[in-house]
């Protein structure tokens, strides 16, 4: 095997390893970012539902109090 062929083979192997490592790193970063966004979205959704349910219950309580005062 000629020296130039060895250089080409080594360069190709190094390039392949670099691409694989960068792909793995990118996958991990994307996974972490997606998990963070999902957690944030679920927290916001939970807070919104909690607020809506609380407001609805307060409205029902106020209505029941008004009706009981009328009687």
Low-confidence stretches: none
Oligomer: single chain
Q: What general form does the structure show?
A: rod-shaped
Query: How many strand segments?
Result: 0
Main beta sheet strand tally, sense and closure: none
Gyration radius, in Å? 31 Å
Number of helices: 1
Structural class computed from helices and strand pairing: mainly alpha
Strand and helix order: H
Protein name: Methyl-accepting chemotaxis protein
Structural topology:
Layout: H1 3-70
Protein name: Methyl-accepting chemotaxis protein
In short:
The protein has 71 residues and is mostly helical.
Task: Describe this protein's structure.
The longest helix has 68 residues. The model has no long low-confidence stretch (mean pLDDT 96). The protein is rod-shaped. It is an all-alpha fold and 71 residues long.
Can you tag this structure with a few keywords?
rod-shaped; 1 helix; mainly alpha; 71 residues
């Amino acid at each position: 095997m000629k020296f130039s062929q060895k250089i080409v083979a080594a360069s190709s192997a190094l390039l392949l390893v670099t691409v694989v490592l960068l792909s793995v790193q990118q996958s991990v970063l994307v996974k972490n970012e997606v998990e963070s966004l999902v957690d944030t979205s679920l927290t916001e959704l939970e807070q919104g539902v909690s607020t809506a349910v609380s407001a609805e219950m307060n409205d029902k309580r106020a209505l029941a109090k008004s009706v009981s005062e009328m009687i």
